[in-house]
Amino acid sequence: MAEHTSMEEFEALLNESFEMDTPEEGSVVKGKVIAVEAGQAIIDVGYKMEGRVDLKEFANPGEAPEINVGDEVEVFLRSAENSRGEAVISREMARREEAWDRLEKAYADDERVEGAIFGRVKGGFTVDLGGAVAFLPGSQVDVRPVRDAGPLMGLKQPFQILKMDRRRGNIVVSRRAILEESRAEQRAEVIANLTEGQAVDGVVKNITEYGAFVDLGGVDGLLHVTDMAWRRVNHPSEILSIGETVKVQVIKINKETHRISLGMKQLQEDPWDMVAAKFPLESVHTGRVTNITDYGAFVELEPGVEGLVHVSEMSWTKKNVHPGKIVSTSQEVEVMVLEIDPAKRRVSLGLKQTMRNPWEVFAETHPEGTHVEGEVKNITEFGLFIGLEGEIDGMVHLSDLSWDQRGEEAIQEYRKGDIVQAVVSEVDVEKERISLSIKALGGDKFADAVGGVKRGSIVTVEVTAIEDGGIEVEYEGMKSFIRRSDLSRDRSEQRPERFSVGNKVDVRVTNVDAKTRKLGLSIKAREIAEEKEAVQQYGSSDSGASLGDILGAALKSGDE
């Protein structure tokens, strides 16, 4: 009877075990730690199944495992039985499943999650989010590039999930978003306590080419290079250094963008308030060249006050030359104040005005007729340019090169670099022109020769050549030509061959052309003039006397 009962109890227990729901592989189950040995925890997951889990799966990155006998833990059942009859379980996979559930909810609710950076990978870092591993891009670590991430490793801190894909097991997080949000709140609080025009202390955090960022206690303001000092500042590092505490004035606050503009010079006295009194027009001052451009040079008259010397006001003689070839940076120069515009904060300066106009000096020291000597600087189609004292040039026009040659021919005899002599013929200071003459060096031979000769004068010339069309004659070294038709009053005597070279002949001057430097001469005109004179003196056409009688009487009178 007892044996029969035992069989019934065994059958009931067996049926009960068959009816029990065994856990499904691939699911998370609860278990109890029943032993810790050989670096592993032995966990009873019920259903008469036990499994082993490495202790490291119970540790957070960078921390020691915390697990004791009797602790209840959740594990992931990978397989109900292995070759040794043990369940194959994983604490890490259970944590991951649990973490994914928690993270998906946080992502949906746009909540922050806690995690710790534990490794570095290409392009960023790995973050443990309580079982799930996320990727932290390098650009999302901080609001500014981080050179050394060592202090951040293993430190529990909040992150914002940017995106996640459970099927692919991808999670991307950001630490920067948390910092920016925190900074935005802090900035809003600090900005709310600031007012435009307020003077505050700040610490220089960063220096750039265009200015410096100053920390005002949780919020940064930009101190532009133009607002650092009234004088010209080439680079902010000239007057600021990182970590330095400075007093600045709040110039402008943008409530929407939370941008703050700061200034240092606004806390100092504006030197422009006294410019008109200290630098009156046409006064001369010594300044320092601070900057050179294509259109001129800036000269500092005093700290904070600069003026521009336009390229046209730099030199009397150097035209179309880059200012850098006349002055150099940091050079001290004397300048004259030409114009002041307080509204635009501009001062126009002149460099050449501090020196005398070289054309005025030349006009004073070289009146017309003065002999000068200089080098041929340039040869053009209309004349020569000669270098003179004071770095100025004078021009010899083609027509002033020679008395005897055409200008186009005479200019062929000159070369650049030749040293020549000339006479000053005119100085125009206003137009900055000096006219010179080379042909005037020996005087005007034509003017000297015909000085007392005028139209109608009777002069004696010497025949120098006989030609078919007339004869060539010379008077006081000046050559002239008498045409055949002017050789005699009688056509029969208009023969050039009746003259010989060396003959002396009296002729009448019919024209004096100073421009062409020629005398118009005629024997015929002389004879006609003599006839008229004889008629007037010894008779008339009404007296009945013949021309022969009149001329005979005139000749007889002449003999007496």
Automatic annotation (TrEMBL):
Residues 26-92, 110-176, 197-265, 282-352, 369-439, 456-524 form the S1 motif domain. One of its GO terms (cellular component) is cytosolic small ribosomal subunit. InterPro entries: NA-bd_OB-fold, Ribos_protein_bS1-like, Ribosomal_bS1, Ribosomal_protein_S1-like, S1_domain. The keyword Repeat applies. Keywords: Repeat, Ribonucleoprotein, Ribosomal protein, RNA-binding. GO terms for molecular function: mRNA binding; structural constituent of ribosome. SUPFAM superfamilies: Nucleic acid-binding proteins. It comes from the Bacteria. PROSITE patterns: S1. One of its GO terms (biological process) is translation. NCBIfam families: PRK06299.1-2, PRK06299.1-5, rpsA. Belongs to the bacterial ribosomal protein bS1 family. Binds mRNA; thus facilitating recognition of the initiation point. It is needed to translate mRNA with a short Shine-Dalgarno (SD) purine-rich sequence. This is 30S ribosomal protein S1. It comes from Primorskyibacter sedentarius.
